[in-house]
Amino acid sequence: MADSTLWWLLAGAAVAVELLTGTFYLLMFAVGLAAGALAAHLGASMPTQLVAAAVVGGGAVAGWHFLRGRQSAGTAGTNLDFDSGEHVHVDAWTSENTAQVRYRGAVWTAVPVEGAPQGTGAHRVRHVDGSRLVVEKI
What we know:
Layout: H1 3-21, H2 24-41, H3 46-74, E1 87-90, E2 99-103, E3 106-112, E4 121-129, E5 132-137
């Protein structure tokens, strides 16, 4: 069996495993294996093929890791609270400045946003603080 055929089979296997697991890093590894196959097609020796696969695959993994790290650092200031803006109904406030509200099929503890007057009726979720909903009167 030719060296390039072995490289292509390994690259295909890495892509198949990536499709089963959803690990994007395996796809970057498969790119490195494809680089080894291309080096074999060009007639490079086995050590050169291994170096090509390692450099391209390792570089792709490192590049993806770096790019992904920059994207997650860029989203640090954005609001990823999917509950904000949702509406709840407050029937009564307790003496501890909390209320029990039904939200998403469960009973939650709601607290008013700082400085907001308490009242019953419709409220909007500002954000989730741990297991509490911070709400404001609508």
